């Protein structure tokens, strides 16, 4: 009894953290062994450890049920009971199959189709009020996300009658964790869809812009070729003719003027064409024309992006630095329900993007504004500057840390749980590390002075260089010579052998807690019910098996005789004492 109490005191601190994460008893048992070994404590018997783990687990479960019973109001209990009722018909006639409300909230679609996204939004509108009602109850449970996920997964993998048959407080505990888990998970699903839809739209814009750019290159090449031909025929040729006339000594001045006027009048159309091609080339060579084409493509893709992302941005509650101009734009968008005007905030955009919003006509381009807003939101979520409060993956970094008030109050407790008591005092730890580093430098320098370092090479001019030794490769002989060459080994046998040697399948644990009778296992790890010979040919099947007799095959429940399906037509079995009886 004294040893049991000693073990209880030794592992109580760790046991609480393990219970809040709902670790399996086997994993807790291994963690306790590692903890006792780290603290150089004598390891008691397995019965003492399992008894302590069982008692602490049951005590923690009782505390959770007591917290549920104390903090759940009658209104909360009615909300949870309503989840076990069938769905009400929104309009007559009533559907033939009415599903339970709890079943409708179990699965969320990962698709980016607008219809599937709207279904997720409807689930969010149903889940969010429920989560806000039970949020304070979840906080009193003091469960980690893994602990909440444990009870929620139990509901997800159970049928409706299995949930309803639980004890009342136990059922309420599972349903409360289910609501919290599904609400946070749905927020993650919607953000994943937002990021995927934005990235897909950006990829489509880049592809179309690239296609337009390549098509414009061909047009530019044709325009440049026409410009060169026009300059040659409409400018250079007349200039050469005028030069010949001007320096001709046989013509008088009056005749020269008359001939020059004739040359100039003949090339007027060609010079107009050259001027047009020159103006077109000038416009194409202006900076920013490619960017304008990209934003033009982005505005054309905005409607498709809005069909997938607009409802998500309107429904989710984003948080971040209140001084962020992007957060101001998001709140403006949510307040206006997407019906924005030219008064919308644009401080989160660059100067070039703000210039593109006006366009050539000076009208505010709403489609382009929404597309840029969605892209900036996606970039901010990836960067971590914009996050969600109710989420698993996209919360603020501070939410993942221990609160400062809790750290100041329980600092010693946290350090003891993390086995960091040796480095609890910062200045002392830094001083110790500095001494060790100084000693290592002194040892390294002594090796260099004594020429005991084979990797240090000194040059005649006083410089040096260090040589890195090559990594030693671990030569492993091929396994081909260990495998049979004349026999075929089925994959089923390989996997069963691996499982027998490593116990891989033992890591999987069913969700039901009651023990169930198991069928006897056979040498290859299968059972009598599911054991079947591999579906291979006769020759390959013969090479799979070791030389066997009928007596050695008795455990399989089948004999080595040919099956009835393989017998030829008209086959008559021989008369024996067994089949004549």
What's this, in brief?
The chain is mainly α and 581 residues long. It has helices at 2-20, 25-38, 46-71, 74-82, 101-104, 114-141, 145-156, 160-164, 168-246, 253-266, 268-284, 289-300, 302-315, 325-335, 351-358, 366-383, 397-400, 404-409, 411-417, 426-449, 491-502, 538-544; strands spanning 318-320, 386-388, 456-458, 464-466. Helix 1 packs across helix 3 and helix 3 (46-71) crosses helix 9.
Give a verbal description of the structure.
The longest helix has 79 residues, at 168-246. The relative contact order is 0.05. The chain is extended and about 130 Å long. Among the domains are: 2-71; 203-292; 312-400, no CATH class. It has helices at 2-20, 25-38, 46-71, 74-82, 101-104, 114-141, 145-156, 160-164, 168-246, 253-266, 268-284, 289-300, 302-315, 325-335, 351-358, 366-383, 397-400, 404-409, 411-417, 426-449, 491-502, 538-544; strands at 318-320, 386-388, 456-458, 464-466. Helix 9 runs antiparallel to helix 10 (253-266) and helix 12 packs across helix 16. The protein contains 22 helices and four strands. 60% of the residues lie in helices and 2% in strands. The chain is an all-alpha fold.
Could you give the topology of this structure?
Layout: H1 2-20, H2 25-38, H3 46-71, H4 74-82, H5 101-104, H6 114-141, H7 145-156, H8 160-164, H9 168-246, H10 253-266, H11 268-284, H12 289-300, H13 302-315, E1 318-320, H14 325-335, H15 351-358, H16 366-383, E2 386-388, H17 397-400, H18 404-409, H19 411-417, H20 426-449, E3 456-458, E4 464-466, H21 491-502, H22 538-544
Antiparallel strand pairs: 1-2, 3-4
Helix pairs in contact: 1-2, 1-3, 2-3, 3-9, 6-9, 6-13, 7-9, 9-10, 9-11, 9-12, 9-13, 12-16, 13-16
């Amino acid at each position: 009894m004294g040893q049991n109490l000693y073990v209880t005191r030794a592992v109580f601190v760790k046991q609480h953290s393990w219970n809040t994460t709902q670790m399996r008893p086997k994993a807790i048992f291994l963690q306790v062994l590692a903890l006792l070994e780290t603290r150089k404590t004598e390891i008691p018997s397995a019965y003492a450890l399992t008894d302590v783990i069982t008692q602490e687990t049951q005590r923690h479960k009782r505390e959770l049920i007591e917290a549920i019973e104390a903090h759940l109001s009658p209104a909360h209990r009615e909300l949870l009971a309503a989840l076990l009722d069938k769905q009400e018909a929104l309009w007559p006639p009533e559907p033939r199959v009415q599903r339970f409300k709890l079943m409708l909230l179990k699965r969320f679609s990962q698709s980016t189709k607008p219809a599937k996204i709207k279904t997720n939004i409807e689930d969010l509108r149903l889940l969010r009020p429920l989560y806000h009602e039970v949020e304070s109850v979840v906080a009193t449970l003091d469960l980690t996300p893994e602990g909440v996920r444990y009870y929620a997964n139990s509901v997800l993998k159970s049928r409706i009658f299995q949930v309803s048959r639980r004890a009342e407080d136990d059922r309420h505990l599972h349903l409360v964790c289910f609501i919290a888990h599904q609400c946070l998970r749905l927020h993650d699903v919607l953000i994943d869809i937002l990021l995927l839809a934005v990235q897909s739209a950006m990829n489509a814009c880049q592809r179309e812009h690239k296609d337009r750019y390549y098509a414009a290159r061909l047009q530019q090449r044709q325009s440049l070729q026409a410009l060169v031909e026009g300059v040659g025929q409409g400018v250079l040729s007349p200039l050469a003719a005028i030069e010949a006339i001007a320096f001709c000594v046989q013509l008088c001045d009056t005749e020269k003027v008359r001939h020059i006027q004739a040359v100039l009048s003949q090339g007027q159309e060609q010079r107009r064409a050259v001027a047009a091609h020159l103006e077109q080339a000038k416009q194409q060579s202006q900076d920013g024309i490619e960017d304008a084409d990209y934003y033009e493509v982005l505005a054309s893709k905005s409607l498709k992006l809005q069909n997938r992302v607009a409802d998500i941005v309107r429904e989710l509650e984003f948080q971040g630095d209140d001084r962020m101009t992007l957060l101001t734009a998001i709140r403006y968008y949510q307040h206006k329900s997407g019906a924005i005007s030219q008064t919308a905030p644009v401080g989160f955009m660059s100067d070039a993007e703000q210039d593109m919003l006006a366009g050539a006509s000076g009208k505010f381009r709403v489609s382009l504004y929404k597309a840029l807003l969605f892209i900036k939101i996606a970039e901010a979520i990836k960067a971590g500057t914009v996050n969600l409060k109710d989420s698993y993956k996209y919360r603020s970094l501070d939410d993942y840390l221990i609160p400062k008030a809790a750290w100041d109050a329980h600092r010693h407790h946290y350090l003891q749980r993390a086995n960091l008591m040796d480095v609890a005092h910062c200045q002392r730890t830094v001083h110790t590390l500095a001494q060790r580093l100084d000693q290592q430098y002194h040892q390294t320098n002594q090796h260099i002075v004594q020429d005991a370092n084979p990797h240090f090479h000194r040059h005649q001019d006083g410089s040096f260089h260090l040589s890195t030794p090559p990594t030693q490769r671990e030569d492993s002989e091929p396994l081909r010579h260990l495998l049979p060459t004349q026999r075929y080994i089925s994959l089923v046998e390989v996997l069963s052998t691996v499982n027998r040697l490593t116990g891989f399948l033992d890591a999987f644990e069913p969700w039901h807690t009651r023990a169930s009778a198991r069928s006897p296992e056979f040498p290859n790890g299968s059972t009598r019910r599911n054991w079947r010979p591999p579906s291979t040919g006769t020759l390959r099947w013969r090479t799979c098996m070791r030389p066997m007799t009928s007596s050695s095959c008795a455990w399989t429940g089948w004999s080595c005789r040919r099956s009835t399906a393989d017998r030829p037509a008209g086959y008559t079995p021989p008369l024996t004492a067994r089949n004549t009886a």
